[in-house]
User: Fold these one by one.
Assistant:
Number 1:
Amino acid sequence: MTIVRRDVRHGWIGAVETARVVSDDDDGLLTWTAVGSEVMHRTTLAGAPIRKMALAEREATPTMLSPAQWRETSILVLTVPGQSHSTWWFFGADGGFLGWYVNLEAPGRRWAGGMDITDHALDIWVEPDRTWAWKDEDELAERTGHPRYWTVEEGEAIRAAGRGVVPAIEAGRFPFDGSLTSFKPDPRWKPTKLPADWDHPPTTKLPADWDHPPTT
């Protein structure tokens, strides 16, 4: 089964990844996104990616969702109900395990076509030997206090959620205990494609004072 995992904020879709459901049970939703899987990433109207664009420039630039492919690595993603992060296993072109990625985000919201999350900018990269480092601290700082993102107090809560994962990393507890690091996809699995309802309207609404919507 193919689903979409979407980054949604204030009723707008910021990014879409397609994924194959590996398992879905009380332990969470586990999905696989292979190299070549279809995605939608936000770009300028000329097609330039905005991922690393400064926030002020991004807000002044009309954008749109553009089709692309997931490149270079394949990933397993575990999303556990109620948790403020998801855990990603990264695999290289040869199938070797590269490391874990802790994506800090609002707890996932399910809908018929998949999972919506709201990304919280800050992440943690974990090497196979479980040494770890923060990622994108500059993006967290840039957005903290901004009326369209989170308050100072909420920014502190985001970092605290990340710190809450660290003991499991350092102790080698699940999911950082080696589970799934030898995962091999079924050789019959093809890269996933965007389903027809990938752009189903999110349930959250746009605030009335947001005056510069991106083009979708």
Note: The helical segments are 55-59, 137-143, 152-163, 166-171.
Number 2:
Amino acid sequence: MLTGATMNDDEIQRRKNLTFEQAEGLVPLPTQLARTEVSPELRAVLWNYIHEEIQKTAEHSAGYGWSHLGKPWDNILKQVHVYREHKLIDDFNAELKPALAVVRRVFEQGSHSEIYGWLQFVLGINRSREFAQRIVTILKYCRSPYRIVADDVICPIGTDEDAAAIGKAFADLKASGFAGSREHLKSASAELSAGNFSDSIRESVHAVESIVRVLEPSGDFSKALARLEAKAQIHGALVSGFKSIYGFSSDEQGIRHSLLDKGAPAVDEVDALFMLGACSAFISYLINKSRGAGLLT
């Protein structure tokens, strides 16, 4: 029970989301992690869940005193062993304790790319919605800069709104059968994760161009927008904005053109994050506007 000065509802709610030390200003408030940062908290919470999932499906024999991987983790970890780590199958150990030790090393010692790469690979095998949702919850709780935006894609994001836009683009592309554009968007995410910012921007733009080529056989971006503007009543200011964003990627040396006498392209992580989010939103916009105008079936 509170004594003396009372707290209002806003202050109580604020404290619910903080540790005592944070609420009292004794340690810094939590912030979203940097793209390549993996906090001890994120490592521990992810491993806690993965360890629990592997343990609860294990097969035990009281009579013989052994424990082995059970389904589905026996198959999942075999595929990780062969197709991700490229190790020979007869070196795979399905005994529970050594199998757990191998996975633990990923979460205890792995870099951001090793951890998120492992998760993305496993998500591509383990289609359990509950598993994916728990990973989503953990990433948010630990302030990870990554989100699951499609069945088999973990993507760096700037905000949760970016994650929603990127996820919607992947869903719209899948529903419309635009496999090429989806692969470009997936590559844009992978290049951004790897720190290849100009390559990420290039792939984001290629994802848009794949849609444009369906709307306009010549592949001319301006002509495609003109067709869409005429059919779907797009405001002229929006058209100008789309052209300006596209122009940025087209004009910057090293993004769409070869590097000549100029140094590295003047783009950074913020630019790449923006373009991934902007191009994703634009893809969904193009698909839905074009379908409404009868330009796509």
Note: The CA atoms of residues 166 and 249 lie 19 Å apart.
Number 3:
Amino acid sequence: MSVASARWRRAGWIAIVATLGVACVAQFFHTDAPSVVASKSGQLEKMLPGSGDGWQATDEPLGPTESLRTATAQILNYDDFVNRRYRSNGREFSVYVAHWARGRMPTRLVALHTPDRCWIENGWKCTQSAFNITALPGRGLPPAQERWFIPPNGSDRIYVWFWLTTDGIPYDFGNRTNSVPSPLRYLWQIARENFEVDGEQVFVRVNSPQPLASFANDPGFERVMLTVKALLDSARRVSSL
């Protein structure tokens, strides 16, 4: 290794250590959750399709899997959400959508509220994972995270797709489950938050006891997923209504 290369490498490590140092110090001055409480504006209920095309839709409250048990990230602080179940002739799927206005919640905390963590911490077992898949080819959805789960009671498998976008840009979960966030990335995000406000965010989870791809070309499912795509493409569309 040349002297110049060694110097560049040393400089790179110094920059990394300095960044992590700033991030660690920033934790003492940075408030993880804004001084607001979770609310429900009702806009998402209006935007997500209701009953139709042979499907019966019912709204349900959030269950224990939607929040972490850890005190540091227990409050979701969303400004709107909808949790809607669709049933048709023995088939069903559910759609959970949450929205955060610009600056309301750090992206790193929103990214913690995925099935990878919330469901597993509540006793669910992930049996299969796929990353950045093309859900419903040809519909233009952002890359989805796909998981297969077994509930705590050991009943039928649950199939899951989920997404997170900030101002319409997909969050990069990488090629690993989010049960344990990357320490370096987490600290980098803490440091960045002190200089930059996170944009509007939309999280969507779709789950079903049936493989989700089996609903492709079903008019009712397609209608719901078109709305999901619109929400993920532009988070600002929600608060502009």
Note: The chain has one domain: 31-239.
